[in-house]
């Protein structure tokens, strides 16, 4: 009986291994990478092996999915994807939402936006969607006015009113925490803030509103959206275990979309 039971167990393990699927998912450093590592733990017993690959910029992960080097990525919000597909011709598809990471304003020089000096230097991301996002935050705070027809992707050239004579320093998003040594304020994506040891909750002096349109998404190549592994990936990501991990680890700095 023991031999039969052992053979059945071995057969079951072999069948599970045969059904297992391996995928590569690109992420940015910080919370996207940390959360996907948790997703991988949940997905593995379900037969989905996820290799999490970190990228230090916002362009390569989409190129890698488009080229077939990755099956999926999880690092960007919808406006960024739309802009990338428009500019670069990527044939990519959103298959699910993940988290919202409110963009924050940080400073080594002031502790209150009311103390922002005239002619202050403001460091913002140099890509169109995140740079535009930063400018929209400044507009929400009443510091600038933007042209009405720019939508979600305004640039400094679209600033129509600048009563405080702010100057804009456009940098790669990953470099913005370093800009705090020189700029009066830097407007930083949460993943790069967390990766540099900044707490959005405790260290930011202003944050985006909770109803921001910048929910993050999981993206695959067009044509792969109905693959069985996509369903398994989303089920693992949207699990109660991953939700609890996010709420416990980030304490409100990262918000779940489900």
From TrEMBL:
Gene Ontology CC: one annotated term: membrane
Signal peptide start-end: 1-20
Compartmental location: Membrane
Parts forming coiled coils: none
Pfam families recorded: Lipoprotein_9
Domain of life per record: Bacteria
Keyword Signal part of the UniProt annotation: yes
Main location: membrane
Topological category with respect to the lipid bilayer: Lipid-anchor
Keywords tagged on the record: Lipoprotein, Membrane, Palmitate, Signal
PANTHER family noted in UniProt: D-METHIONINE-BINDING LIPOPROTEIN METQ, D-METHIONINE-BINDING LIPOPROTEIN METQ-RELATED
Family the entry assigns: Belongs to the NlpA lipoprotein family.
Name used for this protein in its record: D-methionine transport system substrate-binding protein
Organism, as annotated: Paracoccus seriniphilus
Classification lineage: Bacteria, Pseudomonadati, Pseudomonadota, Alphaproteobacteria, Rhodobacterales
């Amino acid at each position: 009986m023991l031999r039969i039971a052992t053979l059945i167990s071995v057969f079951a393990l072999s069948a599970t291994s045969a059904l297992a699927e391996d995928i590569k998912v690109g992420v940015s450093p910080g919370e996207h990478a940390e959360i996907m590592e948790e997703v991988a733990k949940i997905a593995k017993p379900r037969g989905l092996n996820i290799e999490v690959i970190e990228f230090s910029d916002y362009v390569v992960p989409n190129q890698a999915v488009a080229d077939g080097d990755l099956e999926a990525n999880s690092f960007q919000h919808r406006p960024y994807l739309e802009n990338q597909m428009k500019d670069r011709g990527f044939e990519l598809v959103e298959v699910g939402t993940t988290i919202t990471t409110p963009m924050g304003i940080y400073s080594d020089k002031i502790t209150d936006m009311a103390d922002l000096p005239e002619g202050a230097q403001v460091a913002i991301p140099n890509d169109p969607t995140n740079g535009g996002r930063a400018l929209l935050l400044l507009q929400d705070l009443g510091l600038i006015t933007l042209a009405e027809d720019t939508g979600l992707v305004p640039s400094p050239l679209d600033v129509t009113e600048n009563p405080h004579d702010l100057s804009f320093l456009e940098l790669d998003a990953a470099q913005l925490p370093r800009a705090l040594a020189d700029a009066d304020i830097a407007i930083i994506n949460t993943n790069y803030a967390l990766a540099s040891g900044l707490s959005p909750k405790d260290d930011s002096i202003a944050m985006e509103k909770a109803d921001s349109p910048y929910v993050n998404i999981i993206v695959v190549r067009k044509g792969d959206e109905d693959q069985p592994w996509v369903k398994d990936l989303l089920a693992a990501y949207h699990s109660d275990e991953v939700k609890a991990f996010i709420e416990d680890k980030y304490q409100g700095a990262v918000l779940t979309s489900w």
